[in-house]
What does this fold into?
Amino acid sequence: MPINPFLANDPNAKARRLARALVSDLVTYMPQKREEGLKNGTLKELFREEIKKSYEEFVDQVGKEFADSTSHFQDALNDILASGQKIF
It folds into this structure.
């Protein structure tokens, strides 16, 4: 029987979930800003500060070395904030 991912002790799974949660919050709290950024191609610029703060939180929780060695946060930005586009 597979282990429940929320109970798994896999640092990559935890980091992926954290990254996705942080980026999902951006979409949840600023949907109009996201739509504007997608429409005008200005997503990076519009969310620069929010992404910076979210990434700092990500690094605080997973550690700088681990954050630098994975693409979990970037993947979450592309999958969730950029709706699957490779912007980040």
Notes: Residues 18 and 58 are 7 Å apart (CA to CA). Residues 11-81 form one domain. The radius of gyration is 14 Å.
